[in-house]
Amino acid sequence: MKKRIQRVSPLSFGIFSAVAYGVLGLIMGLILLVLSAFDSHPSPFHGILCIVFPIGYAIAGFIFAALCAILYNLIAKITGGVEITLTDPPAGNSEQK
Question: What is the reported pTM?
């Protein structure tokens, strides 16, 4: 069955992206912290980045995702939106979410 995405909620998409990018920032901050342990001149700045990366990534993810949703909504008014194809789950799969 074919359906169209006519509108994306900027707030909902922004929150989703903020969480996803925040986790990504946390992973990158931890990698930086581990790599800084092998640095011959350790800096407390690396520890601060462990906190700043997730927060900065979450904020940037929210802003850019919300802007992308707004842009999508404007373009979807002209083009009709993105067409997707949905299918029903197989008959033997009774998994409920």
Answer: 0.76
